[in-house]
Amino acid sequence: MHASLYREIETVFRKESRLCLRSKSSWLVVLMFALTTLSCVSLLLQGDRLTPRLLAAMIWVILFFSLIAGAGRGFADEEQSGTLMALQVYGSSQAVLFGKGLFMAVLLFVLGLLIVPVYLILMDGDVFSPAILVLTLLAGTYGMAMAGTLLSALMTGAKVQNGLLSILMLPVMLPILLPAIVLTAGCFGGALPALSYLVGMLLYDGILTIAASLLFDFLWYED
User: What's this model's pTM, rounded to 2 decimal places?
Assistant: First the structure.
């Protein structure tokens, strides 16, 4: 990437950060959704312990639906406020893709870091491989964010964005969610998970990044 593109990506990232700080309601809803889900599951279990696989699956289900709630607003807010056209005129497609995608990835990763300790306290769980868990969260949230940004741009203008987004998102997310659940379950269960799953996630993230970069030009300027 050229130095100018890096600056454009940083500009889009900062814009998203300022908008997030100004309008906290949408992301507070995502956080409250995650915390409410954790609390409800904990109360329903009444002290019973889940298997490591179910513990891991619950975390990634929460992150998945948090992405649906957050990514669905990625370009809808721009469209509603009337700034989408200006962003298309003055912002390059690659800067918008990576600026918004990286911002979404940071938010999802921070959300994961917030809910995992609370989750483990409520569920009386343990982490035996924290480094692998953090790497899994990084790889998983990055791939989810890039896919969410691409599909959110595809859904711009649709009347039922969240419904269509969830339908399109799941097939794209499966190559990330399935190994992420296996790795996370291994971190919770004490058995060292196969690192080939993590390598596979990183490879898929790379493929997804290249595909998103190639497709986003068409989606962005076509709209």
Answer: 0.84
Residue pair 186/192 in contact by the 8 Å Cβ criterion: yes
- H helix intervals, 124-194: 130-154, 161-189
* Paired tokens of 75: 């370009």
Q: What is the rounded CA–CA span in Å between residue 201 and residue 191?
A: 19
Cα distance between residue 25 and residue 31, in whole Å: 10
For residue range 136-174, what is the model confidence (pLDDT) as tens digits?
A: 999 999 998 888 888 877 766 544 455 566 677 888 888
Spatial distance between the Cα atoms of 134 and 139, rounded to a whole number of angstroms: 9
pLDDT at position 221 over 50: yes
Mean pLDDT along residues 213-219: 80
Sign of CA dihedral 215, 217, 218, 223: positive
- Of the candidate ranges 31-40, 99-108, 170-179, the one whose mean pLDDT is the lowest: 31-40
Residue count of the chain, please give it.
Answer: 223
Domain definitions of the chain by residue range: 3-222
Among 178, 110, 106, residue whose Cα is nearest residue 148: 106
For 179, residues 6+ apart whose C-beta sits below 8 A from its C-beta are: 197, 198, 200, 201
Q: Which pair of structure tokens corresponds to residue 100?
A: 């918004």
